Amino acid sequence: MRKPWKALVERADGAAYSHAEVVACVGPAVSSDWNCEVSSEYLAEVGQFLGCGKQVQLFEKDPAEIDRLRQRAASPMEALLADYVIDKTMRESAVRRMLQAQEHYERNSSGVRATHMKSRLQKAVIASAPTFSVMAQAIVSGSRIVSRAPSRHEGLDDGPPLP
After folding, report:
1. 3-class DSSP string for 15-66
2. Distance CA 151, CA 7 (A)
């Protein structure tokens, strides 16, 4: 698991972090995956396949061409990109990573803790939908998405708000 995902899971597991702080970690985790797993060459090839610089549904394209793109994929996220548009690729990747984290917690801690962490992660991924759209627009326009690590708690006043 990459560092941004470890930070996200740590925040989702800990009661010391608010929902907003968990949500703030989703974008950096997904953008880190994107930057590490999707090469600019593959993205350019997908762009040629789409025939334009805008997002369109890959489902309307030739299935043989989609299979060719999947065969050339060098990472799981590139393979997902062949099946979905960028926005949906990021959402699906976040869900898959979330399930990996849940499996890890189920193996290494109590079921209650794993369920709690999964619930918080699900809410954070759902709340991050606008972030995925912004990142997808940046990618389509040719920009590199930036993954910034969230700020760390440094004192007693940095915890979640009191009820």
Report:
1. CCCCHHHHHHHHHHHHHHHHHHHCCHHHHHHHHHHHCCCCCCCHHHCCHHHH
2. 10
CA distance 146 to 139: 11
Among 26, 4, 6, 3, which residue's Cα sits nearest to residue 101? 6
Residue of 100, 149, 163, 117 whose CA lies nearest to 15: 117
Over the stretch 103-160, which tens digit does the pLDDT of each residue have?
A: 888 898 888 888 888 899 889 888 887 787 777 767 766 667 766 666 666 766 666 6
Q: Which helix (H) or strand (E) holds 116?
A: helix 111-127
Q: Evaluate whether 149 touches 28 at the Cβ level (below 8 Å).
A: yes
pTM here is 0.61
- Residue bearing tokens 């619930």: 119
